[in-house]
Structures are given as C-alpha cells and as structure tokens.
Amino acid sequence: MNYETYFKRHLAFIEKELRTLLFDYQTRPLSIHKAMQYAAFTGGKRFRPVLALAACESCGGKPEDAILAALAIELIHTYSLVHDDLPALDNDDMRRGKPTCHKKFGEANAILAGDGLLNLAFETISRIRPAERVVRILCEISTASGAHGMIGGQVADLEAPARKKTLAQHDFISRYKTGALIRVSAVAGAVAAGATPGKIKAMIRYGECLGLAFQVVDDILDKDGYCKVMSVKAATEKAVKLINQAKEAVRMFGRKAQDLVFLTDFLKARIP
Length: 272
Fold this sequence. Notes:
Layout: H1 3-6, H2 8-23, H3 30-40, H4 47-58, H5 63-84, E1 94-95, E2 98-99, H6 101-105, H7 107-125, H8 131-145, H9 150-159, H10 167-192, H11 197-222, H12 232-249, H13 258-269
Antiparallel strand pairs: 1-2
C-alpha cells in the first residue's frame, strides 16, 4: 500500500482544514492571500502534518486534537520553502513542476507571503486547547523553526564550504535545517494528545532519527549532500540504521505505533 492510500483519511482532513484556513482570508490586499494560497497548494506529501496526526493517535489522542499544530507546522514548512527559493538563497525558478512563488508573484510579494504564512502559523497555534498545551507546543515549534532549529541549520548550510563540508557539518545542518521540523511534528502530536513525559521522550527520539534519515534519503536520491562525503552504500547504511532506531524508539506503543512504523517503512522504500 502506498503513502497516499494508507494516509488517505489524514491527508483529506489536512487538506480540508488547510483550505478552510487559507481561503477564509479573502480581504484586501488580495495579492498577498493569493501568493500564500499558491505557495501552500503546489503539491507535496504533507509529511509533517501527517506525522503530527499519527503521533497524536499513537499517544491515544484523536486527529482533531493535533490538527491545529499540524497545520501550523505545514505553514512554517511552506514559508521556509518560499524563502529558500529566493535569489538570495537557493535561487530556484521551479518547485514541484510549477514556478516558485517569487517567479509567480515577484520577490517582494514572495517575501511577504512567507512572512504571512509564518505569522498565520502562530495565530493557528494560539487556538489550541486546553491552554496549557498551547505553551508547550508554542515553545517546541518556535524553537524548532528558529535560530536554534531550522533557520540555524539554513545559516550553517550557507556558511559551510559548498564542496568541502565534513560529515559532522552535514549531520549538524541536516538535524536542524530538515530534521527539526520533522522532530517537532512528532513531539507536537504527542503533546496535543496529552501524552506522558515517557511517551513524549520516545517521540523526541523517533523524530530525531526520522528527521535525519529523511535528509540522508533525499541526498541519496539527489546524489548530493551526504553522497559527497561518503559512498552511496555508506549513506544507505546510515539511513537504514536511523530508520531502525526510529522504529525501536516507538516499540513501547505496540500496535498503536503502526502509522509511525509505516512512515519509517515508506522512507526506507524510497531508497534506490
């Protein structure tokens, strides 16, 4: 069974709620809302929000408990892609077969659309209930997306020599630039379910391993990143080891971890 079929229920729920959230904004100036909507619906597997809902259910919660956190993380991920595509960073003209946001709407509107998505993410987090969970989720997501997380990883990537990154540098960049939002997706889902400290700790470990494995697999597919400092065989072994560690981290959940295990198997199946 493929990813879209397995997570059909979660994907339909995420898409419906994301459309409601973004298309409710039809006020002037319409241009900024159109740019935000365009960026959010250019395709993609919604891996992070799916992970948040799966983590929530594994901890005994319902998808409705984690949907606002899941949407917020997807909005942050989308804003990061919009800014990452800008000429000052990766300077990409296409994403998922479509013109990037700055090519479609201009650089100024793309910058502001990213800003709008980020602020909408935190507005969405503020609606989470009960209130005590808002504080923990807000802290986790803001840290994961900021200078101690995704942005820090982006800066480290910019500062490291393009052709001479060490394995340690690749690990640092990957854990923060890519891994931080994946890790926090698992953690936010658990917190939204009211999970115990022990279960949250297991989700932290699961998310850390899955997040790093995600980037290693991407690099294997692109023949980039890790494949510049190790052989494809060694990179594959690294990815498989991390995937197995992620599975082991959620063994304590038993059958309730089946969605989380499926995500690790999905990632492993992407390896050529």
